[in-house]
Design a protein that fits this description.
Elements (H helix, E strand, L loop, with lengths): L9 E6 L15 H6 L14 H4 L4 E4 L7 H8 L12 E5 L2 H5 L6 H24 L8 E5 L22 H19 L2 E3 L1 H5 L31 H19 L2
Parallel strand pairs: 1-2, 1-3, 3-4, 4-5
C-alpha cells in the first residue's frame, strides 16, 4: 500500500544510540535510517519495506545523538526539529537508557523515585510533540522501551561493570514509566525489551532462561549499543507498527 504525500510531510527520529547510525555500521545502517530507506543490497528481503516506499515524497529528519538522555531531547533535539505545517508526521523516539545508566548501581527505592523524574521529562517531550505548531495533530508517535543487555540475568560483570543487585528491578520500573507515558498520551509502544531478550551479552550462555538455541547471536556492538543486526531488528519492530497503522 502506497500513499503519496506532500513535500511538507516528514518522518522525524529523536533519541539515543539505540537507533543512530554509528554503531550499526555507518551512514544508513542505523534503525532510524533503515526505517526510512532500506539498504537493498544488505537486506534484499526488505526491499520496498521502508517509509520512502510506503510514503513517496516523505522527508527524513534525523535528530538522534549518541548518549542522549531525556534532558538532551528536551534541550537540544526538540529545538532543532523542523516545522511541519498542516501535515501528519511520523515520529519515533527511543530514550531513557542513558538516563538509567547515569544512575547505575542505585537501590530499587531510589530507582523508583528517579524513574518518575524521568517520566516527568518524557511527558514534557511528548506534550511538546503533540501540542507544538511544529507537529500539528495527528502526528503518529512511536516510542521504544529499553532493552536489557544482561538477557534477564542481571549480570554484566564479564563486561567490566560492577554488580548491580537491583538493576533488573530498576530497569523494570523505567520501562513501566515509558509504558505509562505511551498509554496516557496515546502513543504506540514498541517492545524492544521483550524482543532483545536472549541476544545481549549473555546470548551464548545456555543456562540463561532466554537463551535462543536457534539464533544464539548477539545484537549488541558493545554492552549498550546495537550492532547491525540489532539495528535491523529494531527497525523491524517499528516498521511492523507503522505499517499496521498505514492499513487502517
Amino acid at each position: 500500500m502506497r500513499r503519496r504525500v506532500s513535500g511538507s510531510e516528514c518522518y522525524v527520529a529523536f533519541g539515543d544510540s539505540m537507533i543512530i547510525d554509528y554503531y550499526a555500521g555507518g551512514p544508513g545502517w542505523g534503525a532510524a535510517s533503515l526505517l526510512y530507506k532500506n539498504l537493498d543490497d544488505v537486506y534484499p528481503d526488505w526491499k520496498g519495506r521502508d517509509l520512502a516506499t510506503l510514503y513517496p515524497g516523505i522527508r527524513f529528519h534525523d535528530l538522534t545523538s549518541d548518549g542522549a538522555t531525556t534532558d538532551t531531547v528536551l534541550s537540544w533535539q526538540l529545538p532543532k526539529a523542523p516545522t511541519v505545517e498542516n501535515q501528519p508526521t511520523i515520529i519515533i523516539l527511543t530514550v531513557g537508557g542513558n538516563d538509567i545508566l547515569h544512575q547505575y548501581g542505585v537501590p530499587e527505592k531510589k530507582g523508583i523515585t528517579l524513574s518518575y523524574e524521568m517520566k516527568g521529562r518524557l511527558l514534557k517531550i511528548i506534550s511538546y510533540l503533540q501540542d507544538s505548531v511544529r507537529f500539528p495533530k495527528p502526528a503518529r508517535i512511536y516510542i521504544g522501551n529499553i532493552y536489557d543487555p544482561s538477557d534477564g540475568m542481571g549480570n554484566l560483570e564479564k563486561e567490566g561493570y560492577s554488580r548491580w543487585p537491583d538493576g533488573l528491578k530498576v530497569l523494570d520500573h523505567w520501562n513501566k514509566r515509558i509504558e505509562e507515558v505511551a498509554r496516557e498520551k496515546g502513543l504506540t509502544l514498541v517492545d524492544v525489551h521483550r524482543h532483545f531478550l536472549g541476544h545481549g551479552v549473555n546470548y551464548d550462555d545456555p543456562s540463561g532462561k532466554h537463551y535462543d538455541p536457534e539464533d544464539n547471536t548477539s545484537w549488541l556492538w558493545q554492552v549498550i549499543e546495537p550492532n547491525s543486526r540489532g539495528a535491523h531488528e529494531i527497525r523491524k519492530l517499528f516498521w511492523e507498527k507503522i505499517y499496521e497503522d498505514s492499513l487502517k
